[in-house]
From TrEMBL:
Cellular-component GO terms for this entry: protein-DNA complex
SUPFAM superfamilies referenced in this protein's UniProt entry, alphabetically: Periplasmic binding protein-like II, Winged helix' DNA-binding domain
Pfam family, one: HTH_1
GO MF annotation, one: DNA-binding transcription factor activity
Residues annotated as domain HTH lysR-type: 1-58
Descriptive protein name: LysR family transcriptional regulator
Gene field: lysR_10
Keyword DNA-binding: yes
Amino acid sequence: MEFRQLVYFRTILQAGSFTKAAKQLHMAQPPLSRQISQLEAELDVQLLNRRSTGVTPTDAGTLLFNYAEQLIVLRDQADHQVRFLGTAVSGKLRVGLISSAAGVLPSGLSSMTTHYPDIQLLITEGHTYQLVDQLSKRQLDAAIVRTPFSATGMQEKPLRAERMTAVVPKKYEHDLPAHLSIKDLADLPLIVYRRFRSIFAQTFYQAQINPFIASYCDDARTAVQLANARLGVALVPESVGLAYLGIGMTVHPINYAGWRTQVKLIWPKSQAESPLLKLFVSQFYD
């Protein structure tokens, strides 16, 4: 099995046909077909269902596609790490960012590309669990994420601690105090950012409160947008609440230490740090 065959195979499935894949690979279709036939013969298994409407993977093809994806990522990672482990500060740095990361990015980052014109920052946006998973698979070099999360083998730099807040539509204001306690939430319809679900549930249980959960969602920004639409009160980190606050809405900090969250920069311990990664991390230290 040759590496180029895996690249050809993946491209065919991504394109959906031999014809489209051949165009993407800048090669003729017959030699592409021969390469895949040779791969099937070598493995002694059919990898593709060939139909007039295109190609789909067999069960064996699906398995090989998943392995091909991992191997191609690892090849690119090896090339990236080895090529730039020298003394030159150059190359591409793959950085993951959560939606509320903008406020913690150091001003020094803007000068990196000025002083080092061969640098390119490749930004991937996602939620914390997605970014931690990509870091563990070496698809990212570093990421800015939010606690709580579970990750082993990571170095970390705390960037900002935040309190949880309630984004409140005017119709739910009543006589709410400027700063809320857990008990102040008991009679409000709550919109919960799903990754804090277990923490909130445990707190409410200990306080003997059974609040009405109007909605769960997978993005803190969505929670604020639902609150802006007057569907309930969103419980989100303060920076997110302030950044996406709508007209006629108010933000009430919640006085409960157990709901504080931290934004952190993390990167793998086991990964050899290139000069570029070291330079990037250094921007977050005074």
